[in-house]
Design brief:
Blueprint (H helix, E strand, L loop, with lengths): L1 E5 L2 E8 L4 E7 L7 E3 L5 E7 L2 E6 L5 E6 L4 E4 L4 E6 L3 E7 L7 E4 L6
Antiparallel strand pairs: 1-2, 2-3, 3-10, 4-11, 5-8, 5-10, 6-7, 6-9
């Protein structure tokens, strides 16, 4: 299991095979991943601890905010714009299809492209 430090927290790749991927992520309070979407990747996030704000929608002008708490989950289909923000330090699982590099960043607080 490889832990990768991120500007917003960290991620650990728990399983990557030809069928699916499972990651454990830490989203630090007050930090966010990129506002992004995926062309093909389909993912489900499941909250283990803490609180997570999920910003999600079909276009940048129409984004909703959903608060996710422990034992709650949300399914994010391909092409759905989304961003996770830690309300508190949050540990969550991400289970997805195998397209790990399928990330189109729209906005990023840390200057990543």
């Amino acid at each position: 299991m490889k832990k990768i430090e991120k500007p917003w927290g960290a991620e650990e790749l728990l399983e990557h095979n030809e069928f699916y991927v499972v990651k454990r992520l830490l989203m630090k309070a007050g930090h966010s991943c990129s506002l992004q979407y995926h062309e093909h990747k389909h993912e489900t996030v499941y909250i283990i601890s803490g609180s997570l704000d999920l910003t999600i929608g079909d276009d940048e002008e129409n984004l909703d905010h959903i608060t996710l708490e422990p034992n709650e989950y949300y399914v994010i289909p391909p092409r759905k714009i989304h961003r996770m923000t830690g309300i508190s330090d949050c540990i969550y699982l991400e289970s997805s299809t195998t397209e790990l590099n399928d990330v189109i960043r729209i906005k990023d607080d840390y200057g990543r492209k």
